[in-house]
Amino acid sequence: MIKDFYLIVHNVRSLYNVGTMFRTADGLGIDKIYLTGYTGIPPRSEISKVAFGADELIPWEKYKNISVLLKKLRREKIKIIVLEKTKTAIHYLQFKPKFPLALVVGNEVRGVSSSLLKQADQVIYLPMAGKKESLNVGVAMGAVGYYINQFR
Q1: What is the tens place of the pLDDT at every residue in 110-124?
Q2: pLDDT under 70 in the chain at which residues?
Q3: Domains of the chain as residue ranges with CATH
Q4: Is the bond preceding 127 in cis, omega lying within 30 degrees of 0?
Q5: Around 139, how many Cα atoms within 13 Å sit in the side-chain half-sphere?
Q6: I want to staple 82 with a disulfide (CB 3.0 to 4.6 A). Which of 31, 75, 97, 120 is the partner?
Q7: What is the DSSP annotation of 70-109?
Q8: Residue 106 contacts residue 137 (beta carbons within 8 Å)
Q9: Residue closest to 116 by CA, chosen among 75, 76, 86
Q10: Where is 23: in which H helix or E strand?
């Protein structure tokens, strides 16, 4: 089986959001989740409660330093795609994925840092029609993940 779709969850503070992403990643067939920065790791009841066992099915690794992980993935020719609304980000529907790739999602409040954005091969965003600036990180990951999956 080709391993081509990875998820990087960086500095996500809510263990419930981490659980949501494990469960959604299972639905997407994501090959591995990288939990970076201060993102919590299994086993935790808060993650398991929402993941419904997906936290025991999907391979995952913990990296405190995301830059170390990104260098490793680049050596493996894996594209780094960041989900974040910036002035230069492209609309997710204009993004044409090339695999293998790793989708990076960040902190619920601060998003992804400017230094991390500079390490991305591409930055994409989800448009918002309402007054809020963003969706919940787990929901946003799911929406973009299902879009990306149609190109696999």
Answers
A1: 999 999 999 999 999
A2: 1-2
A3: 5-149 (3.40.1280.10)
A4: no
A5: 6
A6: 120
A7: HHHHHHTT-EEEEE---SSPEEGGG----SSEEEEE-BTT
A8: yes
A9: 86
A10: helix 15-28
